[in-house]
Predict the structure.
Amino acid sequence: MIPGAFSFLDMIKQFHTQPVNPKEYIMKSISKMIPYPVFFMLLIFASVATASDKENTEAARITQALELYSQATPMDVHSPERTELLNRAESILTGVIEQNPQSLDAHRKLMGVYLQKRDYRKAVETMQSAISLSPEDPKLFIALAILYDHQGAYEYAVPVLDQALALDPNQQLAKDYKASIEQKIEMQKLAMESTPDPHQMMDPHSK
């Protein structure tokens, strides 16, 4: 069993149980259930084989960061200890990347740390860097689209998913997720169109 796997899934599910405004609730209620928690878990916990002493040292540091990440996962999101563990994991991984900017493994793990911290801006930046290292990997594009989705940046998610499908036309998760995003965009438009104009709601006799 992968350490922290189930609590990681629970953490992702929390994104869909936070209070939302009526428009967001309407859009989320009609969205398909996309199995991206498992997708993210596999992406983050995936490991890369190493051989040299330098690579073994790097792998050990990444493993240390992953252990801190796993310890933090089941803790309350407001726990100072959780924050400290994630900050330590972030520091280790950014150090690895500083020494080896080509470490795709470190980028993936760092994205997971930022996802735990709900720092979507840094998570997006990290995933964009990962894509530059492995531009032929459709899974990275899907991950980036999911991060855009969490930010509500649906208009960015769709072309990213198109890139994933260009790399792998049979990638079913990308197809399903794109349909879900397009449905959110459509519902967002409908919600905006159904919102009364504040000027029309004013009393015509008021000054």
Q: What stands out?
A: Residues 5-194 form a domain with the Serine Threonine Protein Phosphatase 5, Tetratricopeptide repeat fold (CATH 1.25.40.10).
